[in-house]
Amino acid sequence: MTATLRLPVATLVAVLLMVVAGGLPLGVAVAGRTVPAGRAGDLHGGIVALAGILAVALALAASWDRGVRRPARLVTWGALALFAVHVAAGQSAWLVAGSRSLVAMATAQGLVAATVLAAGLVVADKAAAARSRSTGNDVRAGAGIALGRSFAALATLATTIVLALMLTGSWAEAAGPTLACPEWPTCRAGTVFPTDGGQSVWPEVAHRAVAALGVVAVLAMAALAWRRASRLLQSLTVVASALVLLEALVGADLVLSVSQAGLSALHLATGTLLWATMVAILFLVCRGGTGPARVAATAPAAVRPTAGMVVPAQVTFGAPALATAQVPAVTLRPAPLAATGLARFGATINDYTALTKPNILSLLLVTTLGAMLVAAEGIPTFALVFWTMLGGTLAAGGANAINCFVDRDIDAVMRRTQHRATAAGRISPTAALTFGLALSALAVGTLAWLVNPLAAGLALAGNLFYVLVYTCWLKRTTPQNIVIGGAAGAVPPLVGWAAVTGSLDPVAWLLFAIIFFWTPPHFWALALLKYKEYDSVSVPMLPVVAGEEVTRRQIVIYSALLALVALLPLAFGLGWVYALGSVVLNGLFLGKAIRLWRTKEPAHARDLFFFSLWYLAVIFAAAVADRLILA
After folding, report:
1. What distance in Å separates the CA atoms of residue 132 and residue 531, rounded to the nearest whole number?
2. 131 and 1 together in one domain
């Protein structure tokens, strides 16, 4: 992380911790452990002091740094003023017995917004000033370049709604601890709007209505940005979408849960991160960071294009003699600028995120959640789902990052993987390995402490099997690498089942078996399309060693075995809903495998591969639907 970013990011993290600690219930059990009121209060006070010191340091640094412009300086001092207001209001809330200070809660959100905006202005203004001094370029990247005014208006609307969401949430919290709407998504007795309860119910109703509008607005903003915005803006809109959905789920769990210990802090943390992300998006829009920047031509006179000049296709250093007849300055085509500190930080985050292979992660998490819902025969508590999914994400992400470290030599040769940061040299091997090990350790710790030891042990076993057995041994030694190594990808359902029940029963192992027998036809379909790449790096995939005909025949065999295994859960309690889904899905899967074997068309291999992705998600969804409907 660059020195320019360290202080703003540290300030933001401290403020976030302050908000979360302020919402943590005192003297109650959290994740099975009691947080003493005195110690929690001391912890919160210490974080407030740390955040205050960093906020002062940020304001002073912005004032002393000549590269920071006046608006950024004013905003940093505004953030410091809001911090003082927040602390004063918080003290008032403690001094007045029984009061819940609306000002204290609302200004916490404003404080974070101001801090994020200050950090963005400091980083962007300093980088822009440095770039302007070094290149002489006039950067005019208006918000309308890539997305137009429609996106700017939608981003402004979504940010305003999220601010309203924070304020109505504070309003509802200040109205009293007793819920006037004890149901979700309805209010009471199946009605959307309250029929009684007086005025105290309306803050909750207003908060729910604003939350619904916020979900729609943020998702619409992300959809508009997805295809035409810069990578940084796309990433921020995706983060905002995930946060607004998480905020809605946590809010629902707050209403439905008997014990709310820790959920209030999580709700505050998610809302704070959502607000900070929306401020960052709006700042990029106002700053013009939505698309490619335009650079006005301000080349020195000695190299300005002239009449009759022939510009070679490739120009080396050392300018040729130019004619003397001058012509008006030309406008160059949009060209990318040197990466600013903020852009480099965003690119680094993207590279590390890519090491975890998010596309694979999503499928693994679907099977984990599916197994949890089947095991619970309903919906587990949000806290259990959240910590299990987080632990599973960290475990799978860590294993994938270590895989990128081990396979960086062959990844650099294969076209499909050349863009990976470890293969391209953007992330050092040591950094990738450290990142993967850190994620794996966090995964085991999270699952062991917040879920149960069995789930943690299964996740660790899956990681070790994937890294040591599959990646380091089987992948480069035998064409049966996918068959045996498929056991690693089949572990997530076991983790999900163990998280809910604390044990494993036959249905859990059958879910494991479905993924185990699904893996060979899924991956061999891809190998048929990429076998030349595997051959070029001497990886003995089945099409390379045995040929395409044998591979197609094996795909049919394993597809038939998969169809049989997928019917076995019917003998252990699953009913007609799962039976119908399984028969249809496996019929389609086997039919596509037979078509590939008979026609030998690459297009059919591609069709089978993409269908297999949907197959796994849908068959787990069928099992969940069966348990929920019949239960």
Report:
1. 49
2. yes
